[in-house]
Amino acid sequence: xxxxxxxxxxxxxxxxxxxxxxxxxxxxxxxxxxxxxxxxxxxxxxxxxxxxxxxxxxxxxxxxxxxxxxxxxxxxxxxxxxxxxxxxxxxxxxxxxxxxxxxxxxxxxxxxxxxxxxxxxxxxxxxxxxxxxxxxxxxxxxxxxxxxxxxxxxxxxxxxxxxxxxxxxxxxxxxxxxxxxxxxxxxxxxxxxxxxxxxxxxxxxxxxxxxxxxxxxxxxxxxxxxxxxxxxxxxxxxxxxxxxxxxxxxxxxxxxxxxxxxxxxxxxxxxxxxxxxxxxxxxxxxxxxxxxxxxxxxxxxxxxxxxxxxxxxxxxxxxxxxxxxxxxxxxxxxxxxxxxxxxxxxxxxxxxxxxxxxxxxxxxxxxxxxxxxxxxxxxxxxxxxxxxxxxxxxxxxxxxxxxxxxxxxxxxxxxxxxxxxxxxxxxxxxxxxxxxxxxxxxxxxxxxxxxxxxxxxxxxxxxxxxxxxxxxxxxxxxxxxxxxxxxxxxxxxxxxxxxxxxxxxxxxxxxxxxxxxxxxxxxxxxxxxxxxxxxxxxxxxxxxxxxxxxxxxxxxxxxxxxxxxxxxxxxxxxxxxxxxxxxxxxxxxxxxxxxxxxxxxxxxxxxxxxxxxxxxxxxxxxxxxxxxxxxxxxxxxxxxxxxxxxxxxxxxxxxxxxxxxxxxxxxxxxxxxxxxxxxxxxxxxxxxxxxxxxxxxxxxxxxxxxxxxxxxx
Length: 713
Prior knowledge:
6-stranded mixed beta sheet, 40 strands, 5-stranded mixed beta sheet, elongated, mainly beta
């Protein structure tokens, strides 16, 4: 609760609220906390100090002001005073937005004219443009932007677009350290950085801040028709010094590039041609005079009108640019409808805040009360924000207020089954079943852990968040290791106050497989240029015929045969020949896969060559490789070999099935050669890892190797 109240106080402090002496509102920010299903009424008083009555129009725009995962708003507050008033002379910068194809440009003009002919400007809806801001900064910290510095730019956008039916809501902020992207975004890394960072371009204007001044560019964007609507290439890119914090007059670069994003081009496009930028009420002017702030300037005397020096799509400085034209407003709305229609899906007026009317008349020198109803009956738990604009044309005033609603809901866990029975499963075979967890409550269900017991049962994932009326799929595995009947449980811990520990019984039986092997693995120590033959006896102890097929990808192994059939009670054998001709010193591993009508069985093959080459030096591998771990399944130790053709920095890590790091086996610079490594099944704090599936990850320079391992106790 205290954090929400702090939010309101800070929000009020940072908002650039315009309140003329003629019109005022009290209070300008509303806050309510309700249990799901409740309602409450707040009253706002609108006072008219004008000698005549005035009409006031209310408009509400729902928004995600600050994302839930961004907790640095208050932490960065102290940095604002030190960074918000820097005044440094800017270089002569240009916009890096590319010119459109002339044919496509003419097509958009025709589309805009057709759209405007079918629209009534007075009925036009507000477009809520959600913003996902990606801060790219250098490893030295240059270019890092705080949340408040970004918020100032968003407010600058809203001031510029307030009269044109567009509102910008800051929803996502992330920070990325990358020197290449930061220093060379414009020329080289534009597509790479965007592809890595973009967020839902259908509903968001992705904004990227980096260093562009070295290219003579303050910002750039792509016009809506440049790429398909969902392309990661959309969005705007700004030099980090173009924001309002850098000097008191900055901020219009972002407004300019947002204009491109919404379909506008430079007012000097095509210079003194009749169509120039495709907008009728922006007079043609010549690009050679686009940086001059002189209202009497007419660089195209043969075309009507003086140069639009105050237009945001000109190159005059920030102090001079103050407006978009009515025709530009038409074009932006038409381009959104044609090329960015998903922006129209973004919520505008909230469903949880209701007022009887949006059109009011306030008598002269009087006040009227407006009731706002906070309604938590149709919205799930969480925090919700909306901007409330009070506009009076007669008083030439727009006052901006805010409302915040905290809904306290209740998550409720349900499952699709009360128990799980695997039946009989052959020992060392793995089977799985699906468990569906649902949230039938009115707030997010936070699954903090999913734990199975005993270890022959394990699950994935091990945690998660389930939205109201949504479900999560959990896979439950059964890996019996002896012939016996197993009874266990899957325990789910969550924030459901009425059922915080949810237990599902699990049953299964380990069965003796009718397919028996005389050996569980082939282990050998050999010299180079040697040949050994191993025999695997196969026995069918069942009462039905078993068909088998053997596959492998080991170049130094040959089999006497690769398929066969075992009658009930019969025996067969497979000869496995290992040939180390031309093989150098080191470990070599592989697997034989027996695929049968009673399951799949793995026989690991592990060969250690101990004799050195003729020159008495170890043979250096020609390529990077990592052997399969042996044994696999294992208990509790398993080994593998890393082959390095050159000196490399390697990191060897073990992760569990949920992606959590459980062990760091090696990290450092290793010379070229072969290294046998072992995991002893231990995690941090000297704890033994439970049975389950693990992931071995070996990073060596640019190479990454991943392999699944099964610990079976």
